[in-house]
Here is the input.
Amino acid sequence: MDNCWHCRLTVLGSKARVEQFQKSNWNRHLKASHGDLLENSPGRFCCQFEAEDPPLESLKVLSLRLPKLVFLLDYEVEGQREKGLAKAQAGLMAHCQFEY
Here is the structure.
């Protein structure tokens, strides 16, 4: 899997909204596999996972469905030598990417 996306997702919002997100099928929507929980506190959820396809557009759509949450995605694609950071909220996305 040279083009595997290694992702770290942080979700921020109210306690109730973050819990709602956790109970959803977010991992299926982002096509996430091999997930590990990193943090689960009131108003903050953080995990890491792998994806075969870029989850950026799916994350943008997910943020449109849950507009009160802020999604931060830190990712690396080792095979393409890319590292990036994306912030999605209410269907809007800011994204930067670097090649190394």
Remarks:
- Helices lie at 15-23, 26-29, 56-65.
- The chain has a mean pLDDT of 94.
- Residues 86 and 95 are 4 Å apart (CA to CA).
- The beta strands are 5-12, 33-41, 44-51, 70-77, 82-89, 92-99.
